[in-house]
Write a structure and sequence with these properties.
Strand content: 25-35%
CATH class: Mainly Beta
CATH topology: Barwin-like endoglucanases
CATH superfamily: RlpA-like domain
Keywords: Signal
Signal peptide: 1-19
Largest sheet: 6 strands, mixed, barrel
Number of strands: 6
Shape: globular
InterPro entries: Expansin/allergen_DPBB_dom, RlpA-like_DPBB, RlpA-like_sf
Mean pLDDT: 77
Pfam family, one: DPBB_1
Radius of gyration: 17 Å
Structural class: alpha/beta
Protein name: Expansin-like EG45 domain-containing protein
Order of helices and strands: HEEHEEEHE
């Protein structure tokens, strides 16, 4: 009986771990400079927003989703430590989109040492 309980607990923990990998992804991020296409009252407080490339925008289905991002880097990379939380408010205004996600300038500067660069980004829906 004890082995069955242990197996159930183990499988439960494994399914949670696997689930984290399913909803996370790796892509590229760039700064999303003004002028923005949305009205000012449509942005979250503090300009904590991003635009997504057409494939992730999914015909407006992504609008309002929240993501946690981090920029992984080596010893001489362009990244700062930590994560940022952002809300999707728009589709990438350029075609083709220069990155998977475009961060507002203040969100981009929170994770990158550079003001205008394309960086690797890991993101997970929260």
């Amino acid at each position: 009986m004890g082995q069955i309980v242990m197996a159930i607990v183990f499988m439960s923990l494994m399914s949670k771990e696997i689930g984290l990998f399913v909803i996370g992804d790796v892509g590229t991020a760039s700064s999303y400079d003004p002028p923005y296409t949305r009205k000012a009252d449509q942005f979250p407080p503090g300009n904590l927003f991003m635009a997504m490339s057409e494939g992730l925008w999914d015909n407006r289905a992504a609008c309002g989703r929240r993501y946690r991002l981090r920029c992984p880097s080596g010893s001489n990379g362009p990244c700062k430590d930590g994560t940022v939380d952002v809300t999707v408010v728009d589709c990438c205004p350029k075609s083709p989109c220069p990155s998977t996600i475009l961060l507002s300038t203040n969100r981009f500067s929170a994770i990158s040492e550079y003001s205008s660069a394309k960086i690797k980004a890991e993101y997970i829906q929260i």
